[in-house]
Design a protein that fits this description.
The protein has 101 residues and is an alpha+beta fold. The protein is built from 4 helices and 4 strands. It has helices at 3-9, 25-41, 56-61, 88-100; strands at 15-20, 46-51, 69-74, 77-83. The protein is globular, with a radius of gyration of 13 Å. The N and C termini lie far apart (26 Å).
């Protein structure tokens, strides 16, 4: 796993990772949802997209078998992982919960 990714997930604020693929239709939907979430939460959490075709080792390490898969890390700990498209309210709720911990 890349050192950069390790540093990224070591953050004290939640980091939402969007595991996606360019060929994935639902991933495009998820991407627009994440844009809205980012606008709504500001600096509360960080949102990062990872293309599973460019970084297959990271996807494999976290058992990503389908896309989109969203994962939330904080202090290098995986707190949440779920495949499928998530809505704005669900994601905002998750990130607010984890940022308060």
């Amino acid at each position: 796993m890349s050192q950069k990714f390790k540093e990224l997930i070591a953050s004290e604020r939640p980091v939402l990772i969007d595991f996606f693929a360019t060929w994935c239709g639902p991933c495009k939907v998820q991407s627009s949802v994440l844009t809205q979430v980012k606008e709504n939460i500001g600096d509360l959490a960080r949102i990062v997209k990872i293309d599973i075709d460019q970084f297959p080792s990271i996807a494999a390490q976290y058992g990503v078998r389908g896309v989109p898969t969203l994962a939330v890390f904080k202090n290098s700990e995986l707190l949440y992982k779920q495949s499928g498209v998530h809505d704005v309210n669900t994601l905002e709720g998750l990130l607010k919960t984890y940022s308060d911990q």
